[in-house]
């Protein structure tokens, strides 16, 4: 069956023209009635398909809802229904907020204005929608990406020119749940308290929890990466720990150095461990685990900066790298971040920053 070529509108020789390609070569036809461009496109498409106007109308006169539904059906072939449904929901939210009824109504200004007006989802029906906060910067970025993905798909399918082609999105780095680091003395108190604790929390004894906090804060490994650790993951001769690519966030094998002070104790502990170091860690309520040990150590779970959840151990690791005098590039590499701005979000100040000055090499006058 003959396929309808993609018909676009362009400015050719100073006048608006329709343009389509035949065997890679452009063809042009002047637009005679600029007030009825869509109707003229249909007539041109019918002529290109030898008068098959019914098929052209079906392709060119679908409603906006039909295009969105086709977009969703295409997405589920390459993504999960949940992911595809989330993108479709965001597209529909932008379209409804902007009052867009047809593809020709989509403009950068309308889309940007609509995204800036969208509020968080209503969770309590008794609360008025206008009482809910506006979307965060990261959420607005997600909505913008969804509508741009939709218009790009329309362009690739030959249904409509992409009106958002020249709209460039800036990468957003935002700390959604502010976290606070553990200061050196606080980290030491947490590890020692957990190590001496006779309590079993989420199936972990005190010794296991102490090593969980120690490795998390001295390597920066995430929960899923810590869950993959086995005795074979460590090379104590070279003082490194390796996490296979299948278990890292970026799907790249991670080889991280270990602090030499922990090697003797680590060697003794690994000698008695069989299998995973932290069995079932992915399913554990790590927030509860660290919160109870912080309370036992007399340390606050929440501060003015943020919470000390389990992922705060990674904040502690990044912050300690800066305390040790490493450069931004070095810290980014050890933290395995793709963007240095994200690394800076993880960095938290030391309680007594003035003490860091004492570590500088000060020359003597005599």
Count of DSSP-assigned helices: 15
CATH level-1 class of the largest domain = Mainly Alpha
The N- and C-terminal alpha carbons lie at a distance of: 93 Å
The outline comes out as: elongated
Q: Percent of residues in beta strands?
A: 5-15%
The biggest beta sheet reads:
3 strands, antiparallel
Uncertain spans = none
Q: From the alpha-carbon coordinates, what is the Rg to the nearest angstrom?
A: 29 Å
Major beta sheet, strand line-up:
1-2-3
Count every beta strand, where a strand is a DSSP E run of 2 or more residues. Answer: 6
CATH superfamily of the largest domain: Intergrase catalytic core
Q: Output the helix-strand order.
A: EEEHHHHHHHHHEEEHHHHHH
Question: What is the CATH T-level topology of the largest domain?
Answer: hpI Integrase, Chain A
Helix content: 40-55%
